[in-house]
Amino acid sequence: MGRTVLVTGAARQLAGRFVRRLLREQDDREELRVVGVDAVPPDRLPEDAESFRFVRADIRQPSVVTVLAQHAVDTVVHLDVHASSGPHGGGRATAKEINVLGTLQLLGACQKIPTLRRVVVASSTQVYGSTPRDPAVADEASRLAAPAGGGFAQDVVEIEGYVRGFTRRCPDVAVTVLRFAHVLGPGAETPLAAYFRLPVLPTVLGYDPRLQFVHEQDAVDVLCRAVRGQGPGAVGPGAYNVAGEGVLLLSQAARRLGRPVVPVLRSLTPWLGPGARALGVHGVSGELFRTLTYGRVVRTDALLAATGGPLEYSTAGAFADFASVHGPGLLPPALLGRAVDRIEGALRHG
Questions:
Q1: Can you spell out the DSSP letters for 214-228?
Q2: How far apart are the first and last CA of the chain?
Q3: Over residues 290-308, mean pLDDT
Q4: What span, in angstroms and rounded, lies between the C-alpha atoms of 121 and 210?
Q5: Whole-structure pTM value
Q6: Cα–Cα dist 3/31, whole Å
Q7: How far is C-alpha 176 from the geometric centre of its chain's CA atoms?
Q8: For labeling, which of 192, 241, 307, 343 is most exposed (least CB within 10 Å)?
Q9: What pLDDT, on the 0 to 100 scale, is given for residue 282?
Q10: What angle do CA 343, 346, 348 make, to 5 degrees?
Q11: Are 242 and 300 in contact (CB under 8 A)?
Q12: DSSP letter, residue 89
């Protein structure tokens, strides 16, 4: 018997990489079919056309149940969870509809499919919040904290609530929730990647947050392990934090990119997102600066226990790979280091 995996958000960059990896590494002993679903077609389709089919469908619509039933899907990988609407257009309101209403509609459709055996949902470490009251280091048992201001963090808290309800109603379906740290890499299309590509980095005056990243390649690897679900190195049912080892301060990240920083009063940060969009820079929002105020760090012990070891890229390694393509900026680290050395020398001999 073969397997049929349905992947939502197929037009997104990360989903496309995941589908291609899944098809490339399929087991010859088991036939694998992948169905990509999105409201807009992807820019690039997988080369293995026989095993892949794209279906243009909106997960916010009841018709998604027809897609699941028609293809006798046994595994759903829900990747259409994002801070921005991306290729859909429509801004933040559209993103919230896709995230919250889309997930609710998709899970409702999953309940009606007798062939379904596994569901994998992409979530975010933003479920733990980014305020002084939230834990300095969160694990999977930490309280989920939806901020009063709403935004993407509130979306993922609501999504996980729907997933828990689905798990109770469908105990025979294995459900895996992957809480990704900020995904970074040369081709990453995330709000933080858009922020780090700015020529000058606005920061919150008086704050230097600790940040964690997961390389896009590691994110794809963990998704593949979750689809496998059993056997050595597989990621089984449950919730998992997915982040590279270690942390990086925002000031360290700016220096490694060679980007100058401009400290901004925290009260002005809600206006930075509209200001960036006015300059043609999309993906940077006022909500992002909550993370860039207090930061967020998570434990990954559960993931390490499941996979048998750390991810290929640490937080610093993921950032270095990003910086190799998108840096150095106006202040190359080597040049800045020599300038600092000259200043220190002048002060010592002054």
A1: EEHHHHHHHHHHHHH
A2: 79
A3: 93
A4: 26
A5: 0.91
A6: 6
A7: 15
A8: 343
A9: 63
A10: 110
A11: yes
A12: -
